[in-house]
UniProtKB/TrEMBL annotation:
TM regions (residue ranges): none
Protein name (Swiss-Prot/TrEMBL): Integrase catalytic domain-containing protein
PANTHER family in the cross-refs: TRANSPOSASE INSF FOR INSERTION SEQUENCE IS3B-RELATED, TRANSPOSASE INSO FOR INSERTION SEQUENCE ELEMENT IS911B-RELATED
GO biological process: DNA integration
SUPFAM superfamilies per record: Ribonuclease H-like
Amino acid sequence: MTVVVSDLTYVRVNKKWQYVCVFVDLFNCEIVGFSTRPNKDALLVYRAFASIKVDLHKIKLFHTDRENEFKNKLIDDALETFHIQRSLSMKGCPV
């Protein structure tokens, strides 16, 4: 749980699109948190963050791409609260 990575995708459920945010422990590739919503927004990411069952202070680094859902005040405040450093992909590079 030292480094957690996250990304968003979407799936079709009952003829409607749902967005999925997944948090993965980089050490063992285990899904440690997730959320689904009909909207692709910061709340989707925040709820996935809140679904993590371990002490969030254990996370030292959170890596994502540069999408607005990850880079906003709501997520900034959550990361600051738990003293988690942010890592963003380089522009034009999704990794």
